[in-house]
Amino acid sequence: xxxxxxxxxxxxxxxxxxxxxxxxxxxxxxxxxxxxxxxxxxxxxxxxxxxxxxxxxxxxxxxxxxxxxxxxxxxxxxxxxxxxxxxxxxxxxxxxxxxxxxxxxxxxxxxxxxxxxxxxxxxxxxxxxxxxxxxxxxxxxxxxxxxxxxxxxxxxxxxxx
Length: 161
Prior knowledge:
The chain is built from 4 helices and no strands. It has 161 residues and is mostly helical. Helix 1 runs antiparallel to helix 2. The mean pLDDT is 89.
């Protein structure tokens, strides 16, 4: 179990590095676009690129944040419950979250396939959209794995407190 957790952690950390690289590229793109706008002309399709890079970066970063338990958790009610009940409820909530992200991942693949067949592109620079949908699916799939990992940890605490 711990070997699997370390592997998932390493993959999510790599995805987080890619997200950071995307955010850096986004900053460079927007800065250069603003500078060029004052001097000559702006970069064509900046709006399209910003949207695509942001979607990919955010989706790739959320799994590492979840792995590190960096998301906000409201524990006002949960802290008052016994430890075993906390573990059972936590495990069930994580399973519901994993189901949500698994469905979202599946839908991203489905929409990506549809976009590939219909050859859907961005409006200004005609970048195909389906590869980005597949990247979103990878990020959501990683999020599903992380949530399942946390669910298993909660369940193991419920079984053996």
